[in-house]
């Protein structure tokens, strides 16, 4: 049996297309050369299209958490009232960062598996005019829940507070109209829907956010966005840019823009729909309800008789398929199937076919083909019913 064929279906890092790998293999040039400045100008322009913004967008050499830290370090002044909206692990992380930078954090936990309730947010903002920063997650990867960022952006825009959104696992998979929806800071990372290896992060900054950042005197060095703004005015960067990753980024952005943003979002929505239909066809329960289900990743409750992590081990050992597990309180209880970035219909079919067989090996009697058929039905639009 061929042991080395692997199917990576986790919500980051995700598979990297050959076109991106090829672009990254080009010879390095100096990061301060005229040639690289031209690359930065071009790539930033393409990145802005994916961010759907005219705001500054910075490319940072870091993981997604680094860019979350950049957002908080630049935005939050010690003592600032911060409204942190959380529905899982990454909402908790954003709040923790705000606390570390001295924020006076009002942590609102909507619960794992639930989305942000805008009525609660409105009440909080109405009750407390001192709130200066609102933190939220677009796609809560730990629970496969996506939030209504359009509603949130339009709501927070009516107040003085600045809205920063963690879109690390959702941008380029789920629509986020940064300018139209008034999202002041959008943070994302390279290794998810951007189809790159881990190592780059991106951050956009609105005029409303700059007004606050310019006044902030908190200590920040590597992630100083004021410094980054000065450098990028000359298409330069303050520190050494990961040159090869930027080459890869341009190839990935070209792929996204050639497919078209609406088409990219529709593809993710279709893959999510098929995955959800398939696991339900196997009699399994989904963690997130349809209304707030992520288009980029699906979280499935493992049947009572099956430990999710044992199931994942069988999937990897027998079929070379990797799903993500549950984090913290969800450990062993859920597994997560990603369908983000360089993902298509056959990735879903592989995931579900392997799942059906692995469930059987773990003692859960799933009818072989029952899930695959549901996914196929979504893909063919019911024409073979
Ligand atoms: N935010 C979200 C929503 C994520 O999914 C992740 C990673 O999974 C992060 C933040 C952290 O990103 P990184 O692991 O690149 O630091």
UniProtKB/TrEMBL annotation:
Source domain of life: Bacteria
**Which Pfam families does the protein's record reference?**
Aminotran_5
GO molecular function annotation: alanine-glyoxylate transaminase activity; L-serine-pyruvate transaminase activity
The answer to whether UniProt assigns keyword Transferase to this entry is yes
The Aminotransferase class V domain covers 7-328
Gene Ontology process terms (BP): glycine biosynthetic process, by transamination of glyoxylate
Identify which cofactors the protein needs according to its UniProt entry: pyridoxal 5'-phosphate
Q: Which UniProt keywords apply?
A: Aminotransferase, Pyridoxal phosphate, Transferase
The answer to keyword Metal-binding applying to this record is: no
Sorted alphabetically, which InterPro entries does this protein's record hold? Answer: Aminotrans_V_dom, Aminotrans_V_PyrdxlP_BS, PyrdxlP-dep_Trfase, PyrdxlP-dep_Trfase_major, PyrdxlP-dep_Trfase_small, SP_NH2Trfase/AEP_transaminase
Q: Which residues carry this modification: N6-(pyridoxal phosphate)lysine?
A: 192
Q: Which residues bind substrate?
A: 336
> What SUPFAM superfamilies does the record point to?
PLP-dependent transferases (SSF53383)
Membership in a protein family? Belongs to the class-V pyridoxal-phosphate-dependent aminotransferase family.
Q: What is this protein called?
A: Aminotransferase class V
């Amino acid at each position: 049996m061929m042991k080395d064929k692997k199917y990576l279906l986790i919500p980051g890092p995700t598979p990297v297309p050959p076109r991106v790998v090829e672009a990254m293999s080009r010879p390095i040039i100096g990061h301060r050369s005229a040639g690289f400045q031209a690359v930065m100008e071009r790539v930033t322009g393409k990145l802005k299209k994916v961010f759907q913004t005219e705001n500054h967008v910075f490319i940072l050499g870091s993981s997604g958490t680094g860019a979350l830290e950049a957002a908080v370090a630049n935005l939050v002044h010690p003592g600032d009232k911060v409204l942190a909206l959380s529905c899982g692990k990454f909402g908790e992380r954003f709040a923790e960062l705000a606390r570390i930078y001295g924020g006076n954090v009002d942590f609102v936990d909507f619960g794992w598996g639930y989305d942000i309730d805008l009525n609660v947010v409105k009440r909080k903002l109405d009750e407390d005019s001192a709130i200066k920063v609102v933190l939220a997650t677009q796609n809560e990867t730990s629970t496969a829940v996506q939030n209504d960022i359009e509603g949130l952006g339009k709501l927070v825009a009516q107040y003085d507070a600045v809205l920063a959104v963690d879109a690390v696992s959702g941008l380029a998979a789920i629509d986020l109209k940064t300018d139209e929806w008034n999202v002041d800071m959008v943070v994302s990372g390279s290794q998810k829907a951007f189809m790159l290896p881990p190592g780059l992060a991106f951050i956009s900054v609105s005029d409303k956010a700059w007004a606050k950042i310019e006044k902030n005197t908190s200590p920040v060095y590597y992630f100083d966005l004021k410094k980054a703004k000065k450098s990028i005015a000359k298409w330069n960067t303050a520190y050494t840019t990961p040159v090869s990753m930027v080459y890869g980024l341009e190839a990935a952005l070209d792929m996204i823009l050639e497919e078209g943003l609406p088409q990219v979002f529709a593809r993710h929505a279709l893959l999510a729909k098929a995955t959800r239909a398939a696991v339900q066809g196997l009699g399994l329960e989904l963690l997130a309800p349809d209304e707030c289900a992520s288009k980029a990743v699906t979280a499935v409750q493992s049947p009572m008789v099956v430990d999710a992590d044992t199931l994942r081990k069988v999937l990897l050992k027998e079929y070379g398929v990797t799903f993500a597990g549950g984090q913290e309180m969800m450990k062993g209880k859920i597994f997560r199937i990603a369908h983000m970035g360089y993902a298509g219909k056959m990735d879903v079919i592989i995931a579900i076919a392997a799942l059906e067989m692995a469930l059987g090996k773990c003692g859960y009697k799933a009818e072989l083909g029952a899930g695959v058929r549901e996914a196929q039905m979504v893909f063919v639009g019911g024409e073979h019913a």
